[in-house]
Amino acid sequence: MANNTRKVAFDILKYSATLGFAAFLLWYVYRDLSFEDLLKHFVNIHYRFIFLSILLALVSHYIRAYRWNILLEPLGYHLKTSRTFVAVMVGYFANNLVPRLGEVSRCGILKKNDGVAMTSAFGSVVAERALDLLILMFLATITFFIEFDKLNQFVIDNFSHKISQSESVSGLLIVALVVAVLLVVLVFFAYKLFRHKLHRNLYYLKLRHFVKELLAGFLSIRKVKSQSKFWLSTLVIWILYYLMLIVVFYAYPPTSGLTWIAGLTLLIMSGLGMSAPVQGGIGVFHILVSGVLVLYGVSIEDGKVFALVAHTTQFMTIMFFGGISFVVSLFLKPRIAHVNK
Q: Domain for residue 2, yes or no?
C-alpha cells in the first residue's frame, strides 16, 4: 500500500512538473505580447486555411490508423481502420494530457475493443516510432545541407563578434565532429572500464532496453506483407504533415510568401517540438518554430503568432476529435479481431 501511495504521489509530481514546465515555456515565449496584441493578429488570419489544415490532420491520422493495421497483419490481426482510428485519436488525446501516455492508451483501446494483445500492439507502436524517428533524422539531414548557406549566414550575422566568417558553420562543424569523435572514444573506454557496474545500474538497463526495443521494432517492419501499401501510406502521412504546416503559412499574411523549403525546415522543428516530454509539445514547439522562422525573414513577433496559430490548430483538433473518440470507444461493441496464426 505504501509503495502504491508513493508511486501515485510520484506520478502526480511528475505530471505537475511537466505541466508547470510547459506553462513556464509558454509564458516565457509570449511574455512580451499582450492578449490585445494577439487579437490584432488573429483578425488578419484567413480561417479557411485553418480548417483545411484540420482536415489534412484528420486524414493523416486516419492513414496512420490504416498503416497500423498493416503492421498488425503479420501478427494475425485484421482490423477495421475506423476502429483503429478511434484508438489512434485517443492516443493523441492522452499524450496531450500526460506525456508518453498515448502509446499505452491506444494499445489499451485496441485490447479492450478488438482483443489485440498489449504486447503485439505495443510492439507495432514501437516500430512506428522507430520509423518516424529515422524519417525525421533523414529529413533533418537533407534540410541541413539544402539550407547550409542560410544557416551559415545566420551564424555569421548573429555571432560575428565571437567568430570570424571563415570559421562560421564550416569551422563549427569541424569542431563539433572532433568533439563527437572524442566523446565516442571516451564513452567506449568508460564502458570498457565500468561495464560491470553499468550492468547493475537501473538507468543504464532502462536505456539499453529502450534501444533494443527501438531496433527490434524497426526490424519488425520487414515482416509486413503489404510492403508497397506500408511505404506508400508512410509517404502520404509525411506529405500530409508537411501540407498541414504549409497551408497555415497562407492563413497568416506575414508567412504567406515563405517557400517550400521553409516548410520543410519548419516540419523538422515542429516534429522535434512535439516529441518533447511535455504535454502536447507546449512551449518547446513555440520556441523552436518561432525561432527558425527568423531565418526566413519573419519577425520574431510574427513568428510567435504563427507558432501559436499552428500549434493551437492541431492541439485543439486533437482535444476535440480525440475527446469524441474517447467517448466513442466507451460505447464501441467489443469484438475479437480475426486472427490467423
A: no
E strands, the chain, in order = 77-78, 338-339
Sequence-distant contacts of 264-270: CB under 8 A, at least 24 apart: 264/139, 264/142, 264/143, 264/146, 265/143, 265/147, 265/292, 265/295, 265/296, 266/292, 266/293, 267/139, 267/241, 267/242, 268/136, 268/139, 268/140, 268/143, 270/245, 270/310
Residue 176: all three cell numbers together:
563539433
Model pLDDT, residue 166: 47
Q: How many other C-beta atoms lie within 10 A of the C-beta of residue 88? A: 25
- In sign, the C-alpha dihedral spanning 319, 320, 322, 328 is positive
Answer yes or no: are the C-beta atoms of 80 and 322 closer than 8 Å. no
Record the cell numbers describing residue 122, joined without a space. Answer: 505495443
- The answer as to whether 5 is a domain residue is no
> What total number of domains does the chain contain?
1
336 within a domain of the structure (yes/no): no
* pTM, rounded to two decimals: 0.81
pLDDT in tens, 187-206: 656 656 666 666 666 666 77
Q: Is residue 267 part of a domain?
A: yes
Nearest to 54 by CA among 258, 328, 245, 235: 245
Q: Which domain covers residue 159, as residue numbers?
A: 35-330
Q: Which residue from 242, 238, 249, 240 is spatially nearest to 307, judged by alpha carbons?
A: 249
Separation of alpha carbons 248 and 304, rounded Å: 13
Cα angle 280, 151, 286; round to 5: 20
- Cell numbers for 20: 508547470
Q: Say how far residue 152 (Cα) sits from the centre of its chain.
A: 27
The alpha carbon of 93 is separated from its chain's Cα centroid by a whole number of angstroms, namely 14
